[in-house]
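Dear Dr. L.,

I hope this message finds you well. Following up on our conversation about the binding site, I have prepared a predicted three-dimensional model of the protein together with iron/sulfur cluster. For your records, I am including the exact sequence and ligand specification that went into the calculation, followed by the structure tokens. Please feel free to forward this to your student if that is useful.
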Amino acid sequence: MTTYSHSKLSTFEQCPLKYKFGYIDKVETEIGESVEAFLGKRVHESLEKLYKDLKFQKMNSLKDMLAFYNEEWTKNWNDGIVIVRDEYDPENYRKMGEKFITDYYNRCTPFNHTRTIGLETQNFVDINGYKIHVRIDRLALASDEVYEIHDYKTSNTLPTQSKLDQDRQLAVYAYGVKTMYPDAKKVKLIWHFLAFDKEMSSERTDEQLEKLKGDVLESIKEIEQCKEYPARESTFCEWCEFQPLCPLFRHKFEVEEKKAKEFLKDDGVKLVNLYASLYHDVKLKEEKLEEVREELVAYAKQHDIEVVFGSDMKVSVKSYPKLSFPKKEDKERKAFFDAVRKIGLWDKLAVVDVYELAKMINNKEIPKELLAILEKYVEKGETVRVSLRGK
Ligand code: SF4
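The resulting structure of the complex is given below.
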């Protein structure tokens, strides 16, 4: 039986191709760990040590904690670690970790508000026969029947409360805790956003956890039915270790390996350069054409004529009455449609926005049962869109 985890489900949601590379093909890449992941690991293991030692009645001072963190940082650092943001160096990141630990230590000392019952837990919870991984940074008891799931975040973004109220990761863990400890009357979800020295929390009702199970099963079903695994570009690509294999980035890696002269001989590079220069010319000409068009209209108006003559060609400048109707976002739109129906012209004039419909189908915005009704009218083919962007 395949096991799943929140991060496995999230990877598929982010990019099905990344999921395939990582979880199906299990591709080993030469691209090293990101500095953000490295920093996260060092901070997590430092806080794990803090609470582990406390279980043995050993209270580390802040100085001890920072010494441990720095020792682990130095011991584990290697040249393969990737820093995407050129403007920062390893020292900036190391100091960030020091600050995270210092702030947390000062905020939570003397660490006796709750009883720690698990650190970096490794459990599985069953959802309809699927094993879902539950890895909690720190599981604690606030009182006999109140459990707390603590999660440390080292990212530089602070989510909104409503996002946390819908967070799947800790909700799955809450379901796991309720299953493992049936006496749990309450399970509090607590995030420590270390970059902001901020604690945020949320809870889930039993009904919400039931719904969550359904959502998780839906996601698993989607993964198991997936056949094509398309690449889905997003901000996550910046940190994706599979870029050298991904069709969205592979060419960049192939040409980067070439020397400057060979680089310019690559057919792909030549074609893009030509396309970019032609595209630029066309854009300039389009802008110029629009300017001349406006000047022609002004000229015709000024001379009270409808045709302007050139050497070999002439341009007709004619004005027509312009009629406008309520637009999509206008309040009167519905009443306007009703009026068209009322005068019996609806069937003659109404058209389905097939472009929008195709977009909705491609974005999976139409429930499967409804899509099945349309299926026989959909002719499937392939269209190619070529778009020019900065690197
Ligand atoms: S680089 Fe982006 S699009 Fe390509 S596999 Fe990775 S996440 Fe997906």
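In brief: The longest helix spans residues 267-303.

With kind regards,
A. P.
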